[in-house]
Amino acid sequence: MLNNVKIRERDRYELYTASQMNNRVQVYAVGQYISMSPDKARRVIDQIRGRSYEEALMILELMPYRACYPIFKLIYSAAANASHNKSFNKGDLIISKAEVNKGTNRKKLKPRARGRSYLIKKPTCHITIVVKNITYLKEWIRLMKTGSIKERQEVLSDMTKRRSGIIVYNSQKDELEVI
């Protein structure tokens, strides 16, 4: 596909470094063929998306839905992957991406009277949890607040080259936020 599109070598290198940078700070866990409706799982996932690791675990423990337990296990697994494989601190993790996709339907036959049978469809779903380490963002914001003008310009030019985030300046609080 890249052969059909004309991309300069510099742009190809920048795209590669941006994806490489995301791989350094992201860890994921996937649960497939979980026996529940995707709509019921999305109801829980929407509550924890974008929250910190500890806050998400507390929310899941207190929610009264059956979908909470498999999602709790996936978040715990993603954090364990992050701490074991990449040596991240669990306190610095946020849930950057959480999605639920529809899986296959398991089909069973329920016997009825006079030799007939009814089809029972049990839906399944695939859940993907991506956690991101935010320590580099904290250091970057600290540098932007305390650094000299030249250092700030270097960091901003590096960010625009890598296309790794959107910078929002809040003039009322005098803060920089990265989205």
Distance between the termini: 30 Å
Order of helices and strands: HEHHHEEHHEE
CATH superfamily of the domain at 25-145, please?
Answer: Ribosomal protein L22/L17
- The beta-strand count equals 5
Count of discrete alpha- or pi-helical segments spanning 4 or more residues: 6
- Overall mean pLDDT stands at 79
| Unreliably modeled segments | 1-18
The CATH architecture designation of the domain at 25-145 is Alpha-Beta Complex
- Class from helix and strand fractions: alpha+beta
Give helix % range.
40-55%
CATH class of the domain at 25-145: Alpha Beta
Rg for CA atoms: 22 Å
Q: Looking across the biggest beta sheet, what order are the strands in?
A: 1-3-2
Shape assignment = elongated
Sheet with the most strands, sense and barrel status: 3 strands, antiparallel
Taken as a percent bin, the fraction of beta residues is 25-35%
CATH fold descriptor of the domain at 25-145 = Ribosomal Protein L22, Chain A
Keywords: Chloroplast, Plastid, Ribonucleoprotein, Ribosomal protein, RNA-binding, rRNA-binding
Pfam families: Ribosomal_L22
GO molecular function: rRNA binding; structural constituent of ribosome
Subunit structure: Part of the 50S ribosomal subunit.
